[in-house]
Design brief:
With 531 residues, the protein is of the alpha/beta class. The protein contains 17 helices and eleven strands. 43% of the residues lie in helices and 13% in strands. The chain has a nine-stranded mixed beta sheet with strand order 3-2-1-4-5-7-6-8-11. Strands 9-10 form a two-stranded antiparallel ribbon.
């Protein structure tokens, strides 16, 4: 598929999304359109899988009905296989295309949507979405599909004041989606996955402050993913304790040949649902991902499965947490002697992630710059990590205004338990390398490549990067503020005072000469001079 075709798919999906928008804000209509795309994806996967099983019988899955001999036996056999391989089951009449046809009055002119022939399908559709979840009850995939469509209330007045208006809108959206080929038969292409990521990014750009809760810009995700996969082709596991929509986890798999297992935790219920959809839609088998919904710091869900080989995170900046004194005996925090302050959980996330990190693993976390230099408990924790454990591998300063919802400059801190270069910490100041696009600063591939090349080679470049010894960092009281180590000061051009003095004298003489000429003119005209 060409880039133009990929762009066309993204544009088609975005245009359909805008049909749904109406009076809803970005994070509301996002849940509907992404849910419908996901339902279509599940339907097409189900039909392809079932048709493969039925090929030897020369039967098509959607043609199975009560009139067909042994129809129930066929369905039972397919359901058993589908729950094992796909993790869910849909009946032929529950397929996306079949619902779309009913919504369009079984119109023979499939290319045309006819409002006058629309059938009422909302109750049927809501029941089907519930049935997808119910089909998994008692199976290994039950947790992965539990209440997955709960944010799609088809009776919401946001979709229309009357049931008829809501039905007409939904039927039209399904009809338009049905005309789009997701290319699922081509397993080498993740066309739909890319388009889904594009939509999530588009919603994030319009969601304002809320965007940071579920989306990390792709260019930042790419940097984190490249860092934690440095020197590796396969990963046993990757973990994101604040996984949002799961985009960061999915970015990691693009940098290696294989990731065996994905683990994530997300506090927000809606975003948690989006993360699970995102995993399934990108072809991650339900047995290979474990996404949990809970507050990571207060109620960690993966203590029984740690450690993890790669850890990435973009946690909420300087968020509040309980800092409950009971946590001083929690294995995640007990060794540090102090807890991260209640008003700023940045180092609580760092400590949590380090506890989950394997001895041969790498973790990369996005933090606000304040985490580099604030005093008190945070300075105490920084000192322990560097002086007692020597876990800090690199500090990378990013440009301001690259995250949705905040314009503050951020940094990436990289930690390893077994460092290849234990005698120094690499500092990179990439804050000035970006391209401004409208109101957002963007990192281009050349900016990302420069960061990664310097990190992997530990290259020192004047005014961009420097390796600081542990002694130098200790001398600075474990203040990691990047300008302390990377000198970006641009000296102003030297000034020749004597030359300027001579030039001023010449100007003064010119002024006096001009004044004399003006005085002569005034005398001839018989008027007073203006000076």
């Amino acid at each position: 598929m060409s880039e133009d075709q990929k762009k066309l798919l993204k544009d088609q999906l975005w245009n359909i999304a805008n049909d749904l928008r109406g009076q809803m804000n970005a994070d509301e209509f996002r849940d509907y359109i992404l849910g419908f795309i996901f339902y279509k994806h599940l339907s097409e996967k189900m039909e392809m899988f079932a048709n493969g099983i039925l090929k030897q019988d020369k039967i098509k899955f959607r043609n199975i009905n009560p009139k067909l001999a042994n129809s129930q036996e066929y369905l039972n056999a397919i359901q058993e296989e589908a729950l094992e391989k796909l993790g869910y089951f849909l009946k032929p009449e529950e397929l996306f295309t079949e619902v779309c046809k009913r919504g369009n009055g079984n119109n023979s002119e499939e290319y045309k949507f006819d409002v006058s022939k629309t059938n009422f399908i909302l109750e049927d559709l809501q029941k089907i979405l519930t049935n997808i979840q119910l089909s998994t009850m008692g199976t290994d995939s039950e947790d992965d599909f539990d209440n997955l469509f709960e944010d799609m209330d088809l009776n919401s007045t946001k979709l229309g004041k009357t049931p008829e208006q809501r039905n007409e809108l939904i039927a039209k959206v399904l009809f338009r989606l049905d005309k789009i080929d997701f290319k699922l038969e081509n397993t080498e292409l993740d066309v739909l996955g890319d388009a889904y990521e594009y939509l999530i990014g588009q919603f994030a750009s319009g969601a304002g402050k809320k965007a940071g809760e579920f989306y990390t810009p792709q260019e930042v995700s790419k940097i984190l993913a490249k860092i934690v996969t440095t020197g590796k082709q396969k990963l046993k596991s990757v973990y994101d304790p604040t996984c949002g929509s799961g985009s960061l986890l999915l970015r990691v798999v693009k940098e290696v040949k294989e990731v065996n297992n994905f683990y994530g935790q997300e506090r927000n219920r809606t975003t948690y649902n989006l993360a699970r959809m995102n995993m399934i839609l990108h072809g991650v088998h339900y047995r290979k991902f474990d996404i949990k919904q809970e507050d990571t710091l207060e109620h960690p869900q993966h203590l029984a499965v740690l450690p993890f080989e790669a850890i990435v995170a973009n946690p909420p900046f300087s968020a509040q947490w309980s800092a409950n004194p009971l946590f001083t005996s929690d294995d995640r925090f007990s060794q540090y002697g102090k807890l991260a302050p209640e008003s700023k959980a940045d180092f609580a996330f760092v400590c949590h992630m380090i506890h989950h990190l394997a001895e041969n693993g790498t973790m990369a976390i996005v933090l606000p710059h304040g985490a580099l230099f604030r005093g008190g408990a945070e300075q105490h924790i920084r000192k322990y990590l560097i002086e007692s454990r020597n876990y800090l591998d690199a500090v990378i300063g990013l440009p301001a205004n690259i995250f949705y919802g905040t314009s503050i400059p951020t940094c990436i801190m990289v930690f390893k338990k077994c460092r290849e270069n234990p005698n120094d910490v690499l500092f990179i100041d990439a804050s000035n390398d970006f391209e401004k696009v409208k109101t957002q600063n963007i990192l281009r591939d050349e900016h990302i490549d420069k960061i990664i090349t310097h990190y992997r080679n530990r290259t020192e470049t004047e005014k961009y990067s420097k390796k600081a010894s542990l002694t130098e960092i200790a001398t600075n009281d474990f203040n990691l503020n990047i300008p302390r180590y990377v000198d970006t000061f641009e000296a102003e051009e030297s000034i020749d005072i004597d030359a300027i003095a001579t030039e001023l004298k010449a100007l003064d003489n010119d002024i006096k000469s001009t004044d004399n000429v003006i005085a002569g003119f005034c005398k001839e005209l018989g008027i007073e001079t203006p000076f």
